[in-house]
Design a protein that fits this description.
11 strands; 2 domains; seven-stranded mixed sheet; alpha/beta; globular; 257 residues; four-stranded mixed sheet; Rossmann fold; binds S-adenosylmethionine
Length: 257
């Protein structure tokens, strides 16, 4: 997908942060010069434009936008704070304060934020799509909120643009307490849904048995995989302990002895 980067209409100047973002996302920067986004897309034969905004980068794709927003994490942490509702991912991972959590599939970063809230420490989060990695990393960095219980976990996330297979291979054995995967489903949960921007940008590869083996070497306590409850993925990956959630999803857990 051909993408370009530009600035908002009101601000057409380069900052040090924008330069770092451009190095991360590795896309061409086109000065805005008062043009509309659709005119820029046409002129540069691009399918989308990333606009470098004060609150974080926003990718405009046809009628949709892709940017960092912590709404899902806010709802999950809020449910725990207000109603003491246990978070199913935290339960499946057995996470406690101080645990080192390796999130192998960043996406929009909701699971990473929830993990950072409960571990109260740094979370490493990997993303193989350079566009998702850069937009979410800088979105997290520039996101501003008065809600300290949301701001603090977001600030604890280290986003790394990496394929988790390559990253895992470079880690020492037992260097994280929990290694977590939430890969893309082969089919969207609702077939009628249009292809979301995340789905268009994401790495669609399924997990391999070799990846799970490497994760078991790197994890001290558990490897956890989120998948559809129905289907053969857990069986294919050799995961026997499966905790269904209230929806169509489940967490597969491998306890490391
Ligand atoms: C379903 S999303 C994750 C959602 C995330 N857990 C959240 O809370 O927002 C899966 C993400 O994993 C990424 N991904 C897939 N394969 C990967 C790989 N081999 N290494 C790193 N990231 C990968 C995809 O690009 C996608 O962004």
């Amino acid at each position: 997908m051909k993408l370009i980067v530009t600035s908002p209409l009101a601000a057409d100047s380069m900052s040090a942060e924008l330069e770092q973002f451009l190095a991360d996302i590795n896309l061409p920067y086109i000065p805005r010069r008062g043009k509309s986004l659709s005119a820029m897309m046409q002129e540069h034969n691009a399918e989308g434009v990333v606009v470098w905004k004060k609150g974080g980068p926003v990718l405009y794709l046809e009628n949709e936008q892709f940017f960092f927003h912590p709404n899902m994490a806010k709802i999950r942490i809020g449910a725990f704070r207000k109603q003491g509702q246990a978070d199913p991912m935290i339960k499946a991972c057995g996470l406690k304060a101080g645990d080192r959590f390796l999130d192998c599939t960043l996406g929009l970063g909701a699971d990473a934020i929830v993990a950072a809230y409960f571990t109260q420490t740094k979370v490493v989060s990997l993303e193989s799509s350079p566009v998702i990695a850069a937009i979410i990393k800088w979105g997290m960095r520039l996101y501003d909120t008065d809600i300290s219980w949301l701001r603090e976990p977001i600030s604890k996330i280290e986003v790394i643009h990496a394929d988790h297979n390559e990253f895992l291979a470079q880690q020492d054995s037992k260097s994280f307490d929990v290694v977590y995967f939430d890969p893309m489903f082969r089919q969207p949960l609702l077939k009628s849904q249009p292809l979301s921007p995340l789905r268009r940008l994401a790495d669609p590869r399924p997990l391999s048995v070799e990846t799970i083996k490497e994760a078991c070497r790197v994890a001290r306590s558990r490897v956890v995989v989120k998948e559809r409850y129905q289907g053969d993925e857990f069986k294919r990956l050799g995961i026997e302990t499966v905790y269904p959630t209230s929806g169509q999803l489940a967490y597969g857990v491998i306890n490391i002895c």
